[in-house]
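Project standup — Tuesday

K.O.: blocked on the structure for the chain from last sprint. Re-posting the sequence here as requested.
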Amino acid sequence: MAKLKKLIALVLAVCVVCTVAVVSVNAATVDPDSNTSASSSIKVHYYCEDGTPTIYYWNSLPQNISTDYPGKTMVNEGNNYYGYTFDNVTKINMLFVTNGEQSKELTRNTGEWWYRNGRWYSQDPGEADDWTRTDLREDSIYFVITTRFYDGDTGNNVHCWDDSTANNPDSDPAWRGDFKGLIQKLDYIKALGFSAIWITPVVSNASGYDYHGYHAFDFTTVDPRYESDDTTYQDLIYAAHDKGMKIIQDVVINHAGNFGEAFLAPMFTKEYSTIQDLGSIDCMKIIPDSDLAKTFPNYDTLEPGYQYQARLNIMKDTKELSQSTHDSENYFHHYKDLSWESPTVQTGQIAGDCVDINTENPVVAEYLNNAYNSYIDMGVDGFRLDTEKHVSRLTLNQFFFPSWNEAGGSNFFVFGEVCTRVSEFWNKGNASISAPFYTWAENDNDYVLGDDPIGNVDITVDHYNSHNNTNNQPTSDNVYLKGITYHTPDYSEANGTGVIDFPMHWNFSSAGNAFRRALEEDPYYNDSTWNVTYVDSHDYGPDMDCRYTGSTQAWAENLDLMFTFRGIPCLYYGSEIQFQAGVPMDVGPNAPLSTTGRAYFGDHIEGNVTATDFGEYTADGAAAETLSSPLAVHLQQLNQIRRAVPALQKGQYTTDSNYVSNGNMAFIRRYTSSEEGVDSLACVAISGGATFKNIPNGKYIDAVTGDVQNVTNGTLTVPSIATANMRVYVCCAPGFTGINGQIGTNGSYLK
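H.V.: unblocked you, prediction finished:
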């Protein structure tokens, strides 16, 4: 009941009495006519450093109980926590009052809950999560659009404002999947073998078609359309960690939506009585005395096109409808030009609902860092940085990456989207907006950002131009073995982040094409073992605007390469059954979502799944059928093999003819760490035979079939195998980290 949160508590109490016709009673009092089980209760713990709070409550179920304002005194539990228990109650509204100051209105269902810093937790946030972040290269990633994956709570289903234009029916509103559904299907993802989940942005959004989360309205708050009365974002993070899984949060700093942002351009509030009210633009109320209200007092009477121009006029001082000065703090870029292959790609507005933020403003950077660091504090394991190409590398290296790395620690991982829709790895000859460029630190002191938000933009333009020549780019051997010996990578020039391997992605029309492109581009990354690789995503397929159209065999071959070659493999939801193959990925509100690459997936994963380990499970219903499909079985074995062989996770590689010959896609990978007690070496051949030479003598076991080869002359020969089949011979000689035999179960392609 967000629109009522400013009302005095007395009015709330009167409303309760009038609508429910009961008088205030003690929380422990039971209505004698109630059939409530005595085991139903709600226990809350409130963190407060400012004195003893009271708890004011009303509108409980199944019988109503309430109290007079300011409520009952809470019990001091120590460590600044105060508790209160509601017996024989399954749902209740409440707010906390401390020294006359009220919290926002809150609702809880049956269970025990902690409330701290404006967020609910299902466990004590100070003690519950002892999770330790680890190297993300040890994981594989399953990518979901949260609202399109699985619906765990139909009560928070909401239409986008433009759903009627898109013809999305009531049975399939754009806001459908949620955190509760994702928690319910963690075992499904684990059954496939994935240990990390990349989710679309969680922050509060506002636009006509914002189900994806990329149109921020308030970077500091989680959008309520993802959450349920009994399930928060924090609950999702805890639930994933409890299953040994990681959460990667998609983040945006390049832009906000065009309805303003709570700090950067406060123009509107959202007011609603039920979550479904957010399905209408009528929930957007102009903030009295805001710049928008004062400049455009007739805003509500303007045509939609003029309303849009009015909002932009306030956010980025366009002068289109008002000649007075707006955004005098330069929180947004005011530039009107945009060229995709020039510095303006980092200062211009890339879309109507993506208003370009002035990331070069130190006040803006501090705000965004504080906002996103709060999610790191909640326990997220990494960030996927949206539209990274549209922010200067200099800005990221000086204003953002250091803050995130400090907040998250050494194993907090950031990988960015440097979108380059070309087959070559230098983006149309522009190094400054190419994927390899964004993996490097700054190597001189000629470009230092200061306090001037406009002067800083000029510095980033100079930086772009001076670093844009592809002939002057640094190279690294961090990804390569020296002979077949692993060496400690030199990260002295690295910025500590990775990127999505867009050149490989764009060439995944076939595994062979992607492999050749990777071999060509690898010297120019600081260390491409940190690259995130995928065939398709929520934006594009390889060199296409639709989901991948290749055959099941082509998919299997692509996956073989992704899971054994350098990089961190990532799968877009539904690809395990070639879901929506060939359909357009994103057409905006111009067609129903069910006809696109962002269709709802939940029907395919109904049923129960219990994962006893990664790739090991029991299942029934539609989920069981999905998990037994050819690519799903293929993925389960690939995930299990990769998890068992450290060389496939973090190893350097060689394709040098002194060690590998006669192979189609063949390479040796090795990872050595005295600290971990690991020396792992694997010889990989995909879709064909190969000869591996000058390798250590001893026993080698194929992880795919369990075949054993005893090498005595430094040579191992793999006979010819079919397309999409593979051999992974792991060195099991004394001193090496070996395996015991075949890993996982063979399917249609691995055999």
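K.O.: great, moving the ticket to review. The chain has a mean pLDDT of 93. The chain is about 20% helix and 20% strand.
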